[in-house]
Amino acid sequence: MAESGIRAEVIPRHIAVIMDGNGRWAEQRGLARTQGHQAGVESVRATVRAARELGVAWLTLFAFSSENWNRPKAEVDTLMQLPEAYFETELADAIENGVRIRTIGRRDSLPASVVRTLDEAVRRTRDNTGMNLVFALSYGGRGEIVDAARRLLRDHELGKVDAEALDEKSFAAYLDDPELPDVDLLIRTGSELRVSNFLLWQIAYAEIHVTDVLWPDFGRRQLEDAIRDFQSRERRYGLTSAQVRAGAGERS
Ligand code: FPP
Q1: How far is residue 121's CA from residue 125's CA, in Å, rounded to a whole number?
Q2: Is pLDDT larger for residue 252 or for residue 203?
Q3: Residue 17: which domain range?
């Protein structure tokens, strides 16, 4: 066991984060909400670094939801500038540390400059074999499932899919990123007890950790708290405790 009290052999493989509370953080300081989002980029930097150093294989961050388009234009404009601000400094770090950048969400609704920035980050890190860092942008879980169904129906029309043979695994191949594994630990900052249309398919068996900490105050220490909380849970996947203790619940 490391000094942090974290067991290295039970690090969640996939951590997903609903980064909430930027607006409240700013309001508490008499700042504009947009300054809260800008402060939130620093937390992204710190959290990505800590997750990588702790050996997390997949980290997915909810950076902009499909519903966020309805916020005031000035706020949307600021949020759309954040990927560029982030990658300006962090792309080199990702390349150096083997981090592979991926994205999920409706790319066609993003401004062309954001798509260019994301494409460059994805392209320049695609051969990396370290942590997968996934940005969910213009993303909604229901929309992702509908898009998957649309792609599936197209393949069905082409005769490539047999309706009777469809199962959860073959359906998941139509999601935005078919390689994205199930979420082990879902973290939500800012204390709200909701999943807000995030990764609805992938969180089926996620352990959920909600913290009062607002996203701009989140970093390595809070990530370690969440992982310790995760490590205290018994994951049952619908089985009984006795079955789990006997090893029946182990998943490959
Ligand atoms: C919700 O907080 C947060 C967002 C809508 C945006 C989250 C984005 C970041 C943290 C930065 C993303 C960084 C990159 C690199 C893309 P809120 O505004 O709803 O907060 P509130 O509930 O306190 O109002």
Answers
A1: 6
A2: 203
A3: 2-140+182-245
